[in-house]
Amino acid sequence: MTYIIGEIGQNHNGSIDIAKLIVDAVARPVTEELFGYDLKRMDAVKLTKRDLKQELSASQMAAPYLNANSFGATYGEHREKLELNDEQHFEIYKYTKSFGLDFVETLCATGCLSMLRLFTPDKLKVASRDLTNLPLLMALAETKIPIILSTGMAGKKELDDAIAIVSSYHTNISILHCVSEYPTKPTNVNLNTIKYLQKNYSQYTIGFSDHTIGISSPLAAVAMGAEIIEKHITLDRRMKGTDQKGSLGADGIYRMVRDIRVLEMSFGKEEIFIEPSVMASRVKLERSIATNKNLKKGRMITENDIHLLSPGDGFKWTEKDKLIGKILKVDIAENEIIYPENI
């Protein structure tokens, strides 16, 4: 079953309460209403933690940042407003776990590992930009916590170098195809990279981190065999913030999870067969050999006397040799099925 991660990232806008409300949206029951299926919810939510001392150059921190999505006069002030401290992450972790959901953390600097003194996330995510941050990869791998690598800014060499670092400590590694374009244009998604990863990195779990608008790409990825789906989520796509518009709101979260779970039920077996539930329709709708005129008792049936009509509970055309040349025991009116007991 697909492991679905809802990436809150920093869509909490620096508020624990908003983060918890997003978790509430993830935790609500998911059903398929027509057939009454109770479906598995999203599996995990993910937060992002930065250490601003290890994040930006001094000039970048001091750069003016005045736009509709800004939370501060400079880029540093903006980033600082969006950060939650270790204790706040711990509070959201506990809240998430109270619903039976997994909790994933993207740690963007070695300084962020301080939160591990409070709790242990179920998985650690390495952001695309940090795939070349080999000191960080080494520090994360040393924890032995399962690691998810995102390929959004990486080619094969960068991915291989990252895997080499992590696998020297453990092999509980997942790789997510990703395009670090927000939002990603349909022409740039290149879902076939999933097949490439499945073929060339088959020893690892392969998935898809999606930045497109809507839910069609993650559904297609699941159909292609992606075992993990990660999608940005929020409380309201109209909220202030650069990631909000490209995220799923509460209704979108529900629809994506519902449709992925329904899709999973739809795969079935790699063979052709008649589903037992189809048998009633088959009998009702298929054709059987019937009379095309009134036929009297004692008449020998010829091919000129028959055609095909529903229902399908009589002789099939492939069985017409069982009828041709046989004698009728009873009168049969025009356009009625000929049954075995009639001959």
Question: How would you concisely characterize the structure shown here?
Answer:
This protein has ten helices and twelve strands. The protein has helices spanning 16-27, 58-62, 75-81, 86-97, 134-142, 156-167, 192-200, 216-223, 250-266, 279-285; strands at residues 3-9, 30-32, 37-39, 44-49, 102-107, 123-126, 147-150, 173-178, 205-210, 228-232, 288-291, 306-309. An eight-stranded parallel beta barrel has the order 1-4-5-6-7-8-9-10, surrounded by six helices. The chain has a two-stranded antiparallel ribbon with strand order 2-3. The protein has a two-stranded antiparallel ribbon with strand order 11-12.
Give an account of the 3D structure.
- With 343 residues, this protein is of the alpha/beta class.
- It has ten helices and twelve strands.
- The chain has helices spanning 16-27, 58-62, 75-81, 86-97, 134-142, 156-167, 192-200, 216-223, 250-266, 279-285, and strands at residues 3-9, 30-32, 37-39, 44-49, 102-107, 123-126, 147-150, 173-178, 205-210, 228-232, 288-291, 306-309.
- Strands 1-4-5-6-7-8-9-10 form an eight-stranded parallel beta barrel, surrounded by six helices. Strands 2-3 form a two-stranded antiparallel ribbon. It has a two-stranded antiparallel ribbon with strand order 11-12.
- It is elongated, with a radius of gyration of 30 Å.
